[in-house]
Amino acid sequence: MIAPRCGSSFRVHQFTLRSKEKGYNVLSKPEKLLMQNTNLSYALTHSADVGSLREAFFVNQVKNALADQNRFIDESIYASKKGDFLVDGRYTFEVGGKTKGFEQIKDLPNSYVAADDIEVGYKNKIPLWLFGFLY
């Protein structure tokens, strides 16, 4: 293994998600820390957590879809208390596998489940792979 020379840098691209309730504060601890590219997770660990990979994929696709909105502070997606993510201040998403239900978001308007390992969605359950078309 070759050690990096002094002054060289290794930059890991990551997303930091904050809670909308806490507001935007650069010095506050983020709610979630996700890799920007899911392949980086496999490069940094022997076994990547499937839940984190799903969430990283979802955030990556949604952030890229909303990137055309020129914003000084990125407020397009937040970590949510009841679901996983609050997108554009209106839509709550819960990300999970094919058996993921609506228990956490059942009383919320505009709430959706982004489910992995399904091919066709039904009502408010959307296949996770469809978010790849947002890129």
What descriptive keywords fit this protein?
single chain, 135 residues, alpha/beta, five-stranded mixed β-sheet, disordered N terminus
Please give the share of residues in helix.
Answer: 10-25%
Q: Which H/E pattern describes the elements? A: EEHHEEEEE
Q: Mean pLDDT score, rounded?
A: 82
Shape: globular
Q: How far apart are the first and last residues' alpha carbons, in Å?
A: 36 Å
* Strand coverage percent: 15-25%
Placed side by side, the strands forming the largest sheet appear as: 3-4-5-6-7
The largest sheet, given as strand count, sense and whether it forms a barrel, is:
5 strands, mixed
Structural class: alpha/beta
Structural domain count: 1
Number of strands: 7
Number of helices: 2
Radius of gyration: 16 Å
List low-pLDDT spans.
1-11
Describe the structure.
The chain is α/β, with parallel strands linked by helices and about 140 residues long. It has one domain (about 15-135). It is built from two helices and seven strands. The protein has a five-stranded mixed sheet with strand order 3-4-5-6-7, covered by helices on one side. A two-stranded antiparallel ribbon has the order 1-2. Strand 3 and strand 4 (about 85) form a beta hairpin.
